[in-house]
Amino acid sequence: MLRYLALPALALLLPATPALALAQAGQPDPGFSILAEQPGIPETTPDQSPPDTSAEAYTVVGPHLDRDSYLALRGDRSEAVLRTRWQIVRTALDGTELAREQREIVIGDGYVTETGEAETVIQDFITSRTLTRTPALDGPVMRNEPFVSHVHRQMNTFAFYTRDGTLDQVTGPGGTAFDRFWIEAAMGVRLAEAGLVSTLSEDGVNEVRREPDGSPVFTHADDGLGAGRPAALFRGWLQHTVPVHPDALATLNNEAGIPAAFSFLVFSPSSPEGRRETWTRLSSFEDEAAFPWPEGLAPARADSYQIDDPAIRRLLQAGLDAATRPSAAPTEADFLAAANAAQRRADPSGAYLALYQISHHQGPCRGDSRAPVCSRISQITAAGIGNPGFEALMAAISAMQTDRPAAITTLREHLHRQGLEGAAANLLAAQALAAVRSNQPDAFADMNLPALFAASAIDDPYAPMAFWHGGRFVASQGDVETAWLLFDIARSLPAAASLPPSREAMAMSAQLQSLAPCFFVPDEDHEEDHEEDPEEDPADTPGQN
């Protein structure tokens, strides 16, 4: 049974402020309020034992993984596959043929892919990720993106064109108007059950209509091929691939197998008069094949993802590099050493910033903390009293919530710093500037906000909060795909396990999955091994460090 939440839950994905401006610009709303700060998650502190990073061990499936590491987290899987070849015919509603092609779809153990394409796409339902083999300057690479980023995009687009689900008639690009049902089909999400009518014809064809006497919007004939798990995977792949309403796809019965043939209607800006697409299975046979990530194919670097801003590419690349080498993460001794070096050059501000940076790894110090770093912060604070520069810095940090422009004015005097000091100064300035620009887009116009996030990550690429806050920023700009890559990085770094980014990302993933469950296929045989299973994380309230 499909699990859909009603409009109030969908509204959690919608922002409160930027919608009007984006609507005036004709762009889909980025959908950012799901990332809004929420109280209630206990903060972690440097008192907690740091993770063991003595060996390169990966526990989070993310874009940093190479082939072997990805397959190891994917688990022990069968190489049995079912190869199916299809003929696809597109016709106008009067029967005029518009196009014809053939495609081979391969269903493996937990994944579905298509052969013969220059840019091979693998929908991996074990890890809930889309892998895309794509060309690069030094040869092909594998992009690795979570399903939830695609679902987030689909939800935002749906909400934009339906005005948060309030419109029954939708006006698309070019002024084309069509019923909301068709954008629900194109996006794979809907507000409520569509009330479709399903009947079985004399020929054994399941016909799905919106009205009892209407034309079928979806038909399928079943012959039992791949009944069970393969059929469930194929249906999940269809949700990612074809514009069929999720309620119509729900009429496919996994126990009846993969359809021998199916067809569906499409009304869209590119087909305002409507068209019908018919898929007919030409052949099928069982085979064996390795998971379709070839040996030697490297994971994609940041420049292989669709990221326009060079600073955001630098931010992502810093994270990709760090996540592949967790053993190089700084230890408590490194923070103390950096602070001591600053103290020796009579720079209490630098010493404080170096120690402050640990909060971007492990959370802030509490007043009763006995951690050496926290004790050292107290000592430096006491020693810095009377130093005008130090007192100005302390005032700026204290004003991060009450007077952000004043905080930025002071913090920008420290942006020249490098290492842990520079990482802290740049991330603090980035957070403050992002908050100011949410209401005053032209504030501090001479400052490059994405470059602040990048500079912080380059100075200290192991701080999860740099990628978490950077992800929140790019999501606010409408780039949810890059945001989720950065969230992946934040969760993949050694110190992230108990920080808010890890728990909040899990909560967001679970919410998106509940809003659009047809994009996901549960791994019933290996659920206990599935690291990304939202049910394993009890957190249901997002938090913010």
Summarize the structure.
By secondary structure, this protein is α+β, with helices and mostly antiparallel strands.
Decide which structural class fits the backbone: alpha+beta
| Uncertain regions spanning at least 5 consecutive residues | 1-44, 50-55, 527-545
Give the proportion of residues in helices. 25-40%
User: How many individual β-strands?
Assistant: 14
Specify the overall morphology. Answer: elongated
Protein described:
- The chain is an alpha+beta fold and 545 residues long.
- It contains 19 helices and 14 strands.
- The strands form two sheets. It has a twelve-stranded mixed beta sheet. The chain has a two-stranded antiparallel sheet with strand order 7-8.
- α10 runs antiparallel to α12 (372-384) and α15 (419-437) runs antiparallel to α16.
- It starts with 6 loop residues before the first helix and ends in a 30-residue tail after the last helix.
- Residues 1-44, 50-55 and 527-545 have low confidence and may be disordered.
SSE layout:
Elements: H1 7-10, H2 19-25, H3 67-74, E1 80-92, E2 97-107, E3 111-115, E4 121-124, E5 129-134, E6 141-146, H4 147-161, E7 169-171, E8 177-179, H5 180-187, E9 197-200, E10 206-209, E11 216-222, H6 229-241, H7 246-249, E12 259-268, E13 271-288, E14 298-299, H8 310-323, H9 332-344, H10 348-356, H11 359-362, H12 372-384, H13 388-398, H14 404-411, H15 419-437, H16 449-459, H17 464-476, H18 480-492, H19 500-515
Parallel strand pairs: 6-14
Antiparallel strand pairs: 1-2, 1-13, 2-3, 3-4, 4-5, 5-6, 7-8, 9-10, 10-11, 11-12, 12-13
